[in-house]
Amino acid sequence: LIFIIAGTILGALGFWLIPMALTALVPYDKQVLGSSLFLFITWIFINVHHYFLDNVMWRRGNPEVSKYLFR
Question: Which structural domain, as residue segments, surrounds residue 34?
Answer without folding.
Answer: 2-69
